[in-house]
Design goal:
Elements (H helix, E strand, L loop, with lengths): L1 E7 L5 H10 L4 E5 L5 H6 L1 H18 L15 H25 L3 E9 L4 E6 L4 E11 L3 E3 L12 E2 L1 H4 L8 E5 L3 H12 L3 E6 L10 H13 L3 E4 L3 E7 L2 E6 L4 E4 L1 E4 L3 E3 L6 H4 L22 E3 L10 H15 L13 E3 L4 E6 L2 H6 L5 E6 L4 H6 L5 E6 L6 E8 L2 H13 L4 H5 L10 H10 L7
Parallel strand pairs: 1-2, 1-5, 2-3, 5-16, 7-14, 8-9, 8-14, 9-10
Antiparallel strand pairs: 3-4, 4-5, 6-15, 11-12, 12-13, 17-18, 18-21, 19-20, 20-21
Helix pairs in contact: 1-9, 3-4, 3-6
């Protein structure tokens, strides 16, 4: 079986690459050992957002009397919530299979390994092997949750995000090790459901990689939700006794919970692929080293997605997929990581694009800053969602937008305007010249832009 492109891994990088290559006339095979959609669709982005939707609905019902609506006692059927999550995921997975079939991509379920130049051997899930001849190979095998032996992962009481998505009931007390994006999203979900949640983070703050003001604001807002946040703590080991698990902290303090969720990052899925034998070079973190064209240095072998160690986001994997395929199909172009929106589906949401204040400081830039609180937004007030802000960082010399950061309602949707402005090289002045509809949350971006020049109207 001979193909123009063979893709190993069917996540948001792999299946997008397969469809685009097929659209451009290539004969394509996509090999996946689990299910199409990868971590994002099956164990990450989509299932967590389905649970977030349930938590947000519950939150709104509990606040109903503020809006003059009386409701009776509210109860949670968590098993039904998980069932709905599974229905959403299964529908989208079926949709991806339909798209692959429509575009005449050959889908092969099994575990792939490089077996010499232009050759991929697949151990088929239903038994036997298949040998695929490929002019080009795209590696898109993604990542898996990182684990530390001392934490005693067992998939039942000490779990990762994978198992957290399949719980049938809400634990009374949950300890989340790691205050990054995944940890904070799960903290919001379970805290809203009535679980006593503690976040243990080794860094001085939760969400340490995002805009400083956003991190501080979220720490305050999560504490207001009753989430116990412990920063600058190190967990030495985890002990299990009966139905409880106890985390032993450096210094002797302890945290007891019904379950512990490990959320400390992810590990590259590069082992067992035959990369070393094929001459594909790996970096210090186990990432596949690629150039701006997503080429590995071995002729005909490309890599996309989390395993490249660039930015571990589904939409980056999809963007890399399109660049890699263009290069394979004789339309050279380079991957640009300057404008990548980052979205966090906490309650409220957080989103950012471009440089943070910390990164500006590292680069020796003193940006002009405009900030507008949702408390001053008419639409946010009408919605009853006034926590948060929009913050814009601008180059003092050129007035170009350096970064935009949002905490608040629909932040993950609003950030698209900022990303478009940055991609087009817009100045803050040009952003202010765009008429924004009233009353909308998007007006807060306009006001923040005006605030850069001290001209905001509503604050």
């Amino acid at each position: 079986m001979s193909y123009k492109v063979v893709i190993i891994g069917g996540g948001p990088g792999g299946y997008v690459a397969a469809i685009r290559a097929a659209q451009m006339g290539a004969r394509v095979a996509l090999v996946e050992k689990d299910e199409v959609g990868g971590t994002c669709l099956n164990w990450g982005c989509i299932p967590t957002k389905a649970l977030v939707a349930g938590a947000e609905t519950l939150h709104k019902i509990r606040r109903a009397e503020e809006f003059g609506i009386r409701v009776g006692e509210v109860s949670i059927d968590y098993a039904r919530l998980v069932e709905r999550k599974d229905t959403v995921v299964n529908k989208l997975v079926s949709g991806v299979h339909y798209l692959l079939k429509k575009n005449k991509v050959e889908f092969i379920r099994g575990t792939a390994k490089l077996a010499g130049p232009g050759k991929v051997v697949v151990s088929l899930q239903d038994g036997g092997t298949a040998e695929l001849a490929a002019e080009n190979i795209i590696l898109a095998t993604g990542t898996r949750p990182a684990l530390i032996d001392a934490f005693g992962y067992d998939g039942e009481r000490v779990i990762t995000s994978n198992e957290a998505l399949s719980l049938k009931e809400i634990p009374d007390a949950l300890l989340i090790i790691g205050g990054g994006v995944v940890g904070c999203e799960f903290a919001c979900i379970f805290a809203e459901m009535g679980c006593r949640v503690t976040i243990a983070e080794a860094m001085p703050s939760i969400l340490p990689l995002i805009e400083r003001d956003a991190s501080r604001q979220m720490q305050t807002l999560l504490k207001r939700k009753g989430i116990n946040i412990k920063t600058k703590v190190k967990i030495e080991k985890v002990e299990k006794s009966g139905d409880k698990v106890t985390a032993i902290l450096e210094g002797g303090d302890t945290i007891e919970a019904d379950k512990i969720l490990i959320s400390i990052g992810r590990v590259m899925n590069t082992s067992g692929l035959g990369l070393e034998e094929a001459g594909v070079r790996l970096g210090q973190r186990g990432e596949v080293l690629v150039d701006e064209h997503l080429a590995t240095g071995v002729p005909g072998i490309y890599a996309i997605g989390d395993i490249t160690g660039k930015i571990q986001l589904a939409h980056v994997a999809s963007a890399q997929a399109l660049v890699a395929v263009d290069n394979i199909m004789g339309q050279p172009r380079q991957m640009n990581y300057d404008v990548v929106p980052n979205c966090i589906f906490t309650m409220p949401e957080v989103a950012g694009v471009g440089l943070t204040t910390q990164q500006c400081e590292e680069k020796g830039i003193k940006p002009r800053v405009g900030k507008f609180p949702f408390m001053a937004s008419g639409k946010a007030a009408a919605m009853g969602e006034t926590d948060g802000f929009v913050k814009i960082l601008a180059d003092p010399a050129t007035d170009k937008v350096l970064g935009v950061h949002i905490v608040g309602p629909h932040a993950t949707d609003l950030i698209a305007e900022a990303a478009l402005a940055m991609e087009l090289g817009a100045t803050v002045e040009q952003m202010t010249q765009v008429i924004h509809a009233h009353p909308t949350l998007a007006e807060s971006i306009l006001e923040a832009a005006e605030a850069v020049h001290g001209r905001a109207i509503h604050i």
